[in-house]
Design a protein that fits this description.
The protein is rod-shaped, with a radius of gyration of 25 Å. The protein is mainly α. The model has no long low-confidence stretch (mean pLDDT 76).
Length: 57
């Protein structure tokens, strides 16, 4: 009985570590998407502002 409890305890600790690692990778993926989105918005803003400031005539 004691051995069974220690095995369950080890499995649950491993499951917690796996869950923590998955949540970290999910957050990293979300932040990479946010960086890409904000980068694209910044690029569009730079293009719009730079074309407004040019006086061709």
């Amino acid at each position: 009985m004691v051995r069974w409890k220690s095995t369950i305890r080890e499995l649950s600790a491993e499951a917690r570590l796996h869950f923590f690692a998955r949540s970290l990778s999910r957050r990293a993926g979300a932040s990479a998407h946010h960086i890409g989105l904000y980068g694209a918005c910044a690029l569009i803003a730079v293009l719009v502002l730079s074309t407004l400031s040019v006086h061709p005539f």
